[in-house]
Amino acid sequence: MRAVEWLTFIEAMSLSNVRRSYSLVELVIAMGLFVVLIGAATIMMFTALKNSRKTAVITRIRADGAYVLDLIAKDVRYASTIDAIACSPNTNSLNLTRIVDGGSVGVAYMLDTGSNQIRKDGNALTSGQVKVINDPDCPTLFTCSGSEVTICF
Predict the structure, then answer these.
(1) Confidence of residue 37 (pLDDT cuts 50, 70, 90)
(2) Rounded to whole angstroms, what are the CA distances from 82 to 9, 23, 36, 60, 73?
(3) How distant is the alpha carbon of residue 117 from its chain centre?
(4) Which of 25, 90, 107, 139 could form a Cys-Cys staple with 96, CB 3.0–4.6 A?
(5) % residues pLDDT > 70 (the chain)
(6) How far apart are CA 139 and CA 90, in angstroms?
């Protein structure tokens, strides 16, 4: 009986040391799942980058627009006169006269159709990355009626 116990012990030891290997089918399935997961992660990363760039562009456009509109609104608000001739239907410019320290200062805004930028006294207010184009429903950038100035872009 002792020999039988010894034989059982040897069989148990040999079975515990046997390493089970993976079949080719299991390896192919595991590689396929890995490729799908990596592909999904790559797609998600590129989508996030694209959305980040789009958000940055929208933020830049809003910042440029807010800056320009704030400057124009401030100058219109404090203008002593608004040149109505410069607000005629055939032009994209606005001329204002402000009183500063007892003297009057002329301020001119215009849409430069060559570079599609809004300019104040010849200096660009919008960046070169933002193009300002008239809305087809608005024939001009500025429209004046009395003391009111409408900005359409």
Answers:
(1) very high
(2) 106, 85, 65, 30, 12
(3) 19
(4) 107
(5) 60
(6) 8
